[in-house]
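hey m, so remember when u said the tokens were messed up on ur end? i reran from scratch. heres the input so u can diff it against urs
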Amino acid sequence: MAAAFAQSPPAGDHPNLRAMTEMVTTTASAASVDFEFGLDLIPDGLERLRDTAGH
């Protein structure tokens, strides 16, 4: 289903959406690593914001 969706949006209209869906459907292991890396950035960023707000 995801592979079919990856082909549905016109590349010219939604290039980032199409690239992301293609990446997720063709390289699932790489996508999970990227997702975990991005997920780790969220708490780090929130902690930095908290630290700068207190100063």
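this time it looks ok to me. The chain is about 80% helix and 0% strand. if urs says something different then somethings off w ur setup not the seq
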